Amino acid sequence: MGQFRKTFIQLISYAFLISVVVFGVYLVYEKVLLALYVGETEQRIGLIQRASEPFLFWVSVTIDGVLGLLVTIFGIFLFFRILNKNRES
Predict the structure, then answer these.
(1) 26 partner at 20 to 30 Å CA-CA among 41, 49, 73, 76?
(2) Residue 24, Cβ neighbours under 10 Å: how many?
(3) Average confidence score pLDDT of the chain
(4) How far lies 57's CA from each of 19, 38, 41, in Å?
């Protein structure tokens, strides 16, 4: 029973960390790449267009890109850290 529980917790940990990585990639795709392609991004204050408000557009895209990359890198880091920890034990 103890081995089953350990394996189940490892499986749940891997699934969670993979979902964190996928969410980070989704943020980068949805908030950065599509915003650059379309030329506008939507925030709480409304629609920001690159042509009419370039500073707000680039600040918004930069913040979204950094957040998405941080979530992705953090998820990958934790995934490999847990993977290596489980191989050692």
Answers:
(1) 49
(2) 20
(3) 84
(4) 28, 12, 7
Q: E-assigned strands of 1-86?
A: 40-43, 46-49
Structure tokens that stand for 74 in this block? 């953090």
Measured CA to CA, the distance from residue 16 to residue 43 in angstroms comes to 28
Query: For the segment 10-40, what is each residue's pLDDT rounded down to a tens digit?
Result: 888 888 889 999 999 998 998 888 888 888 8
Contact partners, residue 62, CB within 8 Å, separation at least 6: none
Q: What are phi and psi of 49, to 5 degrees?
A: -100, 145
Cα distance between residue 66 and residue 86, in whole Å: 30
Asked if the model's pLDDT at residue 68 lies above 70, the reply is: yes
